Amino acid sequence: MASAKLSAVLKRAEDDAKMDMSPMIDMVFLLLIFFMVASRMITVRVDENIKPPVADESNRPDDVKGRIIFNIRADGTFTFGDGSITVTEEEITERVNNFREKMEQRDVKATLLLRAHRDASVRDVKKVTKAAANGGVNSVVFGSFKTDR
Predict the structure, then answer these.
(1) What is residue 13's predicted lDDT score, i.e. its pLDDT?
(2) d(CA 105, CA 125)
(3) pLDDT bracket for residue 10 (50, 70, 90)
(4) What CA–CA distance (Å, rounded) separates 44 from 126?
(5) Distances (CA, A) of 38 to 6, 32, 33, 34, 48
(6) How far is residue 36's CA from residue 129's CA, in Å, rounded to a whole number?
(7) In angstroms, rounded to a whole number, what is the distance separating the alpha carbons of residues 97 and 116?
(8) Hey, is 134 helix, strand or coil?
(9) Sequence-distant (≥ 6) Cβ neighbours of residue 131 within 8 angstroms
(10) Domains of the chain by start residue, with CATH
(11) Angle at CA 79, nearest 5°, toward 101 and 91?
């Protein structure tokens, strides 16, 4: 009797082991859906009226958290990162101050990303940086294009 059971176990051991892949495929799809739902989509609107200057030695920073974006058009108008036009330095200071307070709650250092048109006046750049400093943001990053040289 024992030999019949032993021969049956040995016979089953010789068969190819088959794995059911459907639970693994289900788990992959569940993980994919989880990460799609849990992640945040960050949309950056680029002002098409801005043609930044070209800088051969520019580099892309690693840390881009806490950036407030201001654009300076060639005609001297200022636009916020969402595309809304700001007119006065007081409005810029107010927006920067509100943004800085939000970033401080998250323990992130606020930085001004200044995208100026290549024909923009230095006077306008100075206005925005001064208004940002009055709003509590002293770190400025200038946007530029990098050539493929």
Answers:
(1) 54
(2) 28
(3) low
(4) 24
(5) 52, 10, 9, 6, 31
(6) 38
(7) 21
(8) helix
(9) 89, 90, 92, 93, 96
(10) 67-142 (3.30.420.270)
(11) 50
Q: What are 96's two structure tokens?
A: 């920067």
Angle between helices 122-134 and 89-105 (to 10 degrees): 50
pTM over 0.90: no
DSSP summary character for residue 142: E
**DSSP class of residue 60?**
-
Number of Cβ within 10 Å of residue 110's Cβ equals 23
User: What pLDDT, on the 0 to 100 scale, is given for residue 89?
Assistant: 81
> For residue 60, what are its two tokens?
């892309």
pLDDT of residue 29: 93
| Strand, coil or helix: 55 | coil
pLDDT, tens digit, 9 for 90 and up, residues 93-104:
888 888 888 888
Could you tell me which of 124, 141, 22, 15 has the C-alpha nearest to residue 74?
124
Render pLDDT for 50-86 as a digit per residue (tens, 0 to 9): 777 777 777 777 777 778 888 888 887 878 776 677 7
C-alpha–C-alpha distance, residues 81 and 76, integer Å: 16
Nearest in space to 80 (alpha carbons), one of 106, 104, 88: 88
Q: What is the pLDDT of residue 26?
A: 93
